[in-house]
Amino acid sequence: MCSNAGLYDHSKALYDRTKDEIEHVLQHYVVPELNKNKYADEGNAILNKFSHHWENHKVFVKWMQQLFRHLDNGYIANSSISTITSVGLKLFFDIVFVQFKAEVRESLLNAIDTERDGINIDQDLLRSCVEVFPVMGLSSKCTTLKTVQSALNTQPDLSVYESDLEISLLKRTSDYYARKSRVWLEDQTTPEYLTRAEMALKAERNRVKRYLHPSTQSKLLCACEQELLQKYKGPLINHDQSGLRSLLAEDRNEDLRRMFNLFRRLADGLSPMALMTKKFVQSEGNKLLQERRDLIHSLKSKGRKLSSNDPDLIDQLMTLHSKMSRLVLELFDNEAQFQRALREAFQEVMNADTTSDDSNVELLVVHTDRILSGKLKLDEEEVENRLEHCIQLFQFVSDKDLYAELYRERLAKRLLSKKYTSIHAEKSMIVKMKTQQGAPFTTKLEGMVNDFTVGKDIDQTWTAHLNKLRAANLLANRTRMDFSVQVLTQGFWPSQKQRDLQLSHEMRDAKSAFNTWYTERHSHRVLSWVYILGDVVVKGNFGGRSYDMTMTTFQAMALLAFACKKEAVAFPEICEHMQIDEPTGKRVLHSLACGKYKLLDKTGHHRTINCKTDLFESNAIFYSKLKRFKVQMSMLDGDFKRKVNVEIQQQRGFGIDATIVRILKSRKR
Length: 669
Prior knowledge:
Strand order of the largest sheet: 1-2-6
Number of helices: 25
Distance between the termini: 100 Å
């Protein structure tokens, strides 16, 4: 035919003979053999024969195309008919695939289920059989395939694969895991179930890689997730003995991470987990609050009172928050739903006070004060870490204005009594609050610290001036005592009620000297002296033993009234001498005569003050092992909490009024 090509063109006859030969082989050799194994007892018999004939057919078509390549290049190209490769694959589709696809599909699905049950199968065999479906989709529509290899490498038409295999595969997969999930749920705990589910999903991914088409992976995993996770997410998460609550309580980090990774696959899979996490945190927090309530009631029944300085509750809440924050960050990838759940849970806990007189806000302020006042022996890094924990709890507090006012009172005490760890730590805490709440929230606190810093410079300048005057003998002998002054800005510091007090001659002279000096430097400023905030170191001799006693200005003036008196003095006479009212006098004398250090002796009951009958005199037999000590006195302003609450209510009232005015103005426009 080739040698006579110039005389007569036999291309069409050759093309037809090639097509007929391929059809003859399929009809008389392949189909009969497959029919023999169509109902064979062996599970993979049909697959083995089908794969065998498919591989042979690929070789057959390949060599037919190679032998008659000139047909593809000439006759077929000019006649716009199907190439030899396209014809060979299309014949396989029409004669073999259409007739045996149901049996092949069923055998494939059975083999896959067998593998899911843990029995090894021939994966190469399955890959060869599955390969046919995408190629048949392409060959049934494409007529320009050059080679078999190009047909395998070309982007396939998945219509046949999806309709004839994938749909059935997904349904069989759903049925399989529906049966398995029911059994696992009955027999296994939540962690065990999730471990099985994780292994199943991993196996399905590997199955796709080994012999299924890549496009099946997302659909196959979705079917598995629907049966294994979506249907049972409620029972799995809320399981009484082994659910999420138990995993959180037992710190089962590996199981928690697995649960998170699995349920994050679902459209709304993390919401139940976040809700349960919130309930767990609320439960743990409320348990801590209840333990404190029980302790308060227990002590109350014994006639005792739990101090707000008790750090246990805040320490435990900090520990709980640190644990849950670390868990959300490391195990739950800082997912927004879990952040919100943690925030809402701690907001509820931090704003649920144990009793009406024992607020979490006050406990947090006291705990912060313990850190900054040096009561806890911590290095600089530990102080910073503790303050960070405090500010984390602070962000959950609703009454932030109450926190600010209580904090301001504590800060004033620390600064004026010089009982603070460092100014750097104080500034660090204020910066943290400023970051959380904005600049207006910390204006007064920053002003207090600035006053204290500037006040040191003023005091040093005043001391230098005082020493200069003494050196020049320009001061009376009565001003020989050391006298330092802390100048405060009235708007920044907590308000104090003005109380009259008759100072000693020495203190009056020192006060007058400072007034003169300060007015010369700052003529536009007015000084208002707050004696209750002052400290005095009084040197006293009792029974031949000398003591350095630190006390308030009121206590010092009361004690000095007995310096030159040998006879007992009545309560009204002392108040008149000091020019103070009766309630103030009772508190001052109670601290000196009934406190820990009984510097005065009194008649009547040793624990109470009778304003009409009690007489007071210096305690000549007073003795203390300490040569330096501080004489404590209760607050002159009475109920400190009530005072702060009144101020807060006033500030809130002003804020509400301002808001109403703004709303009315905006509506008027």
